[in-house]
Amino acid sequence: MPDKHALLSSSSAHRWLNCQPSARLCEAIEDTPSDYAIEGTDAHSLCEYKLKKALDMECTDPTENLTYYNEEMDESAEGYKDLILEVLEEIKKDGCKDPIVLIEQKLDFSKWVPEGFGTGDCVIVADKKLYVVDFKFGKGVMVSAHENPQMMLYGLGALELFDALYDIDKVHLIIYQPRLSNVSEYEMSKEDLIKWADEVLVPKAKLAYEGRGEFACGEWCQFCKVRSTCRKRAEASLALAAFDFKKPPLLENSEIEEILPKLDQMTSWAEDIKAYALGMALSGHKWKGWKVVEGRSIRKYKDEKLVASTVASEGYDPFEKKLLGITEMQKLLGKTKFEEILGGLVIKPQGKPALVKESDKRPEFMPATADFVDEEK
User: Fold this and answer.
1) Pair 75, 110 in one domain
2) Residue 333, CB-side half-sphere exposure with 13 Å CA sphere
3) Cβ(14)–Cβ(220) under 8 Å?
4) Same domain, yes or no, for 251 and 323?
5) What's the pTM value of the predicted model, to 2 decimals?
6) How does pLDDT run across 84-122, given as a tens digit for each residue?
7) Hey, which residues does 122 pair with through a beta bridge?
8) Do 180 and 271 sit in the same domain of this protein?
9) Are 109 and 117 in contact (CB under 8 A)?
10) Structural domain containing residue 181
11) Residue from 24, 31, 25 nearest 5 by CA
12) How many structural domains does the chain have?
């Protein structure tokens, strides 16, 4: 059974642990999978296939049935598979000769969360240690494994399966988020995990299941189904908008530091309101002073195969030659040959600078001052 059907799902734990009443409010809203969600499902299917194939497990290549398959997704799935293989290699070096690997494993944590269950991307059982690995294909928000409630719920579910048999001491959580070059790891003792479950998880899960508790807004609102019409979120966002600023030219650095942490929340809320209003308008609702118009579109071919054959029949070549991408080139040449002849010709350009919270795990950006100086000469 898919994780999304659980009222208190592992994937939404960050939200319902912070805002308990949101669980029952969201329950009444029908699930409408977004393109991002479908893309993520495709990527997980590809990860599952590549890992199973690498471990000589029975599997079927899903590629031709994936809506959003592309080179980036293929590279990401390859990276996920390689990460798991590296973890297994380290486990074997530590003396565990035959670790157990479970892929897309249903995990039941209903002992702590009413009707609670989820699906772990990969669970590895080693000597006295559990590994829980989660693949994230999103690139909007960097996800940390540090005290991550979704991962801790998976850990609890895995303990329910294996603790009695393998006398687990530690639970090692790993998040792999390739599009943000993020590999986040966090290890905790079994005792600490159980203590969190008993003292924090159980009482909050009870409130959420019963539809009680206090409304609270924060970064966990991002994927809430009622985020557009939530009064608590609106109040918090409008309170920020009413901040008693000085005139813009006179803003002081201390004021900007106070504003920065709240801007993403306010911007996200404003975009959600606009999306909700558009959806209502398309359903027939008339907003006073507003109307729906057709946006600008770009020309495209009605039938690409027919266009190609038609142009070719006139004696023209309808195709342009394009250099193979890195993943496809590596498949063509093989990894050894690729490194031998192209290793020195592949670079990883510096990413675009972004202002993030100091808690972000990425190293601080160092401007290439010398390059700018050379350009100015």
Assistant:
1) yes
2) 15
3) yes
4) no
5) 0.68
6) 999 999 999 888 888 999 999 999 999 999 999 999 999
7) 103, 133
8) no
9) yes
10) 3-210
11) 31
12) 3
